[in-house]
Amino acid sequence: xxxxxxxxxxxxxxxxxxxxxxxxxxxxxxxxxxxxxxxxxxxxxxxxxxxxxxxxxxxxxxxxxxxxxxxxxxxxxxxxxxxxxxxxxxxxxxxxxxxxxxxxxxxxxxxxxxxxxxxxxxxxxxxxxxxxxxxxxxxxxxxxxxxxxxxxxxxxxxxxxxxxxxxxxxxxxxxxxxxxxxxxxxxxxxxxxxxxxxxxxxxxxxxxxxxxxxxxxxxxxxxxxxxxxxxxxxxxxxxxxxxxxxxxxxxxxxxxxxxxxxxxxxxxxxxxxxxxxxxxxxxxxxxxxxxxxxxxxxxxxxxxxxxxxxxxxxxxxxxxxxxxxxxxxxxxxxxxxxxxxxxxxxxxxxxxxxxxxxxxxxxxxxxxxxxxxxxxxxxxxxxxxxxxxxxxxxxxxxxxx
Length: 401
What we know:
The chain is mostly beta strands. It has helices spanning 89-95, 112-116, 246-258, 272-276, 285-288; strands spanning 32-33, 38-39, 62-64, 69-72, 78-80, 87-88, 165-171, 182-187, 192-197, 202-203, 208-209, 218-220, 225-228, 233-236, 302-303, 309-310, 313-319, 329-334, 339-343, 350-354, 361-365, 393-395.
């Protein structure tokens, strides 16, 4: 990856990639997919062109310091290599002050964006291994295990194989499950961000130190675009306005480039980390009456599965590959409530609840019908929409990917 010196833009400038305060590190996805499985990467104009593996993103790079710590050469963050035993969130929060790994005394619990910077979508979702009678190839964690210690859930102790969740320091400003205080975390076994019950769960913790990372610096371009100078990404202030399948989303981006939308022909469907960098975790529909994004961005309201006003899921270009070899799901980020179908054990009745919080990252089928999933998908019945919204992104002028 080559960097160049920045040129001065009007009316603002963006730093060169090497000097960015919050560069978005690539997802590590090198395989192209159609609606079901891996394919040869398509050419421009062909179906499925423009997906994650073709984005030319900033490749992850780490250094093992040989003292129980790992340095991220892209973000400038330093991490504890081994997470140790699972702990409560309170223990995770308070334990940072006592950590002396590598001889340092300034460890902290990472924010959700710092923690998510470690996710690699070269991983495969081990959830598919949980179904009765399923056969999986060897699953691959969503983490570079050459540098970071990792373990799946201990099934001999009654855990699920997917129980490899890690705490962040980022609370959900609302609640999940009808009033449960919630903290966001990353699951490196299934490749998702979800909100977890603050006072009921025990999860891994991986402490971090170093410069602040993950704060955006938005500037309105005055032309319908908004640039984040911290990441050198320029976004369309508007979204697609309608839900699309994943293949339609990729084609929609191609069509915008063909017409030189807003004067540019290098728009792309954002990858998972790019899109997650837009989430404003100080906002939620229940607490601010808005989507979890800076209010300078336009967000199309939708009618959700409860019949009320909510905000869309947004597609990324990243496939959420299963350990059984399927590539039928793609990653989305929920800027509205991350709803799920939950069944009452007492009455057997189903209800739609905010189960994971606005700002969660989950996945949806790339094709098909939402009606095929009347009670959602996964352990918390994640609502399935299939047709999700799109927000365009491009690398800011004056920088090079």
